[in-house]
Amino acid sequence: MIRKGVLKIYDGENNIIMESENLILYSGREFIMSILLNSNNSNIAQQSNSYRLGFWALGNGGLLDPFDPTTRILPSPNDLDLNNKLQGFDSNLQTVTNNRFYKRYSNTIFLTDSTNNDRYLITVVTLRLEENEFENTHINEAGLYLARSENAKDPNNDFKIFSKTTFPSVFKSAGNILNFSWHFYT
Fold this sequence. Notes:
It is a single chain. The protein is mainly β and 186 residues long. The protein has one helix spanning 26-36, and strands at 6-11, 16-21, 23-24, 52-59, 103-104, 107-113, 119-129, 137-147, 160-172, 178-185. The protein is globular and about 45 Å long. The termini are close together.
């Protein structure tokens, strides 16, 4: 059985709010073998084998109308970024690259897949939005990014989108916590 990756969003009480399939983009797929084989592919980036998956970005360009979930703009394999990245991560964690903000993922969890002989085929990458992040903001797209440095504040860091999803708007009110989990099935 082939399973598709999903993004799940939970409230601060760990109740699921939303679930959406994600798409690994061509720009992300080009890096996979370079990273796994530790071999540079200069056709896609200098030192392509030095990139690692590690950053999130969120946006509000996933719907034509942010209040109508039926107007979802589905990701395309050719997408090179989110449609409209938002700025709103905690100022102690954020970095500016072309006026965009990224945040390092919180945690990585490896899980067994009961539909595939209980093998460790599920990887979950998590992000926690704190009370002071993205206050009073509609969020309807998310992306995972590759970067050369694990330091979000590195001015020479180069972010390349790996995977993307869009979904009906989730409102992040002031004082609330949201937890995101991105599930990959290999």
